[in-house]
Write a structure and sequence with these properties.
It is found in: Cytoplasm. The protein is built from four helices and eleven strands, in the order βααβββαββββαβββ. It has 213 residues and is of the alpha+beta class. Helix 1 packs parallel to helix 3.
């Protein structure tokens, strides 16, 4: 394995080169097919960066992807130790990854697209004989029954009378005195209740008339 050392804004002494070759011998254990290691040692002359003025960059050229690491310190020996630690860790991961690929059968591709649920047909509203329309709420068993009545004003007494005639527990009407939509409902015994909306509606006829319930 060839080791190519270069200096940028600094001189690399033979003593440091020998130290590099000794340290980089560990690389062959993790990358036996490595062809070359490029080492770039640079020095930053700015005194404000004295704490990281020495930089060491290591690049392993192999048949596979290029793996590199770099580190800075106030001393190039320390920078080399930091960079070499990073490089060995990356080489170890690369080796383990190659082992996993050799020991495992390739997995069949998995479809990761979100599951698209088929839209269920929406039940069409059903019109009953009395004019009411029944609609199923979504995919639930809930059925909503809607029916439209003629809405003419009447008194509360008239509404209660009409409610008793149709035999329902409630009766929807428009209060003739206030023009408010209201509903009369049966309570316990012979008592009744009336609920009104706080918004009046326009009425076309002043006379009392029956409203559906």
């Amino acid at each position: 394995m060839e080791i190519v050392v270069a200096g940028r804004h600094t001189e690399v002494l033979p003593k440091y080169r020998a130290h590099l070759e000794q340290k980089l011998a560990k690389v062959e254990q993790l990358a036996p097919r490595a062809q070359r290691i490029d080492v770039l040692v640079s020095h930053e002359a700015n005194p404000r960066q004295s704490g990281s003025c020495e930089r060491v960059e290591l690049t392993v050229v192999d048949k596979g992807p290029v793996i590199r690491a770099e580190a800075c310190a106030d001393d190039r020996y320390a920078a080399l130790d930091l960079a070499l630690g990073k490089l060995l860790e990356r080489l170890r991961r690369s080796r383990d990854r190659r082992k996993d690929h050799r020991n495992h059968t390739p997995l069949a591709p998995v479809d990761v697209r979100p599951h698209e649920e088929a839209e269920e047909p929406v039940a069409a509203p059903v019109t009953q004989v009395d004019g009411a329309v029944e609609t199923t709420l979504g995919d639930s068993p809930v059925v909503i029954r809607e029916k439209v009545h003629a809405a003419l004003p009447m008194t509360v007494d008239d509404a209660l009378y009409e409610m008793e005639l149709v035999g329902h527990d409630f009766y929807l009407f428009i209060d003739a005195e206030t023009a408010q939509p209201a509903v009369a409902y049966r309570r316990r015994g012979w008592s009744y209740g009336v609920i009104k909306l706080d918004t009046a509606v326009r009425t076309a006829a002043p006379e009392t008339a029956a409203v559906g319930g």
